[in-house]
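Per reviewer request, we include the raw input and output of the structure prediction for the construct analysed in the revised manuscript.
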Amino acid sequence: MFLLSTATGESINVELEKDFDIYDVRLLLENSSGITVVDNPEKNFYPLASKANGNDDVFVGRLRRDFSVENGLNLWVVADNLRKGAATNAIQILEYLLNNS
């Protein structure tokens, strides 16, 4: 049987305006709706496309400082492109704005 995976991963590098504590970034992500943090390097736990396939959440892991730029952050992000596409994002942004305005 052939299973089609619609999930993909992406390495993201962010340069923030201010210095940050990686623990605070992790807490922010863990407490954000629609995000699942999978990040335990000691146990080799990190986001996999096979786990994201068929899920609405965005999976984030491998959080670490990027020392190549000032205030840099590296993270690995995996999501199902069919379930977490532009339409889902638009609805979630609208819901957020309605609930937090």
